[in-house]
Amino acid sequence: MNTPQVLIGSADRRFRHDVCAILAQQDDIDVAGTAIDAVMLSRMAAATQPGIIILDMQLLPGDPAPLIEGLYVACPHAKLLLFSDVPDDGWLVSAVQHGVRGCVDRTCGAEVWLRALHALLVGDVWIRRRVLFAALQGGSVVHGDPLAAKLFTLTPRERQIVVYVRDGLSNKQIARQLDICPTTVKTHLQHIFGKLDISRRLELLRQWGAEKPLEGTIHDARHMPAN
What we know:
5-stranded parallel sheet, elongated, alpha/beta
């Protein structure tokens, strides 16, 4: 099996050096190269077809959409891990809606962003709950991300039930929380299983359970109206 390759895009030489140094210590990852601007990054993405693109938010002026969409044109199967120090959730929501699979703080330690990188490699997302859920509410499907895309198919009520399941509540307990009967909860779960392409509760916990290291869950759904 080929070793996954990571392409790094940043105008900050220190950032590129530090990330490369950490990745050089990983036996299961190769560095495909580094790029200092958006044009160079797109060209290298097209040439190397990396599995992961580490994207420093400093390469993204105001609107993140053009560069992100351009990277997916150049390398459709890449997964984008964004390093950001933007406090504005709205900017991050836009980045997620246009295809970013993971978001980490630009000042976080290597242990954190390596966990995020490995989560992306196995098909997970690494996104703060409130950012992911805001992206879901916006109605746009995260590019190339089957896990996040499936969440868009759930109704608000179904999202609430997923949250309670991942918190360990039984059907009867969920019914009491939502003031519905347990049979209705069971029906909702059957619909949820079908939409998420799973067959039982245990699989739901494995995919969206609280024990998973990724941050891309829908915990805040319990506070949303069920409509």
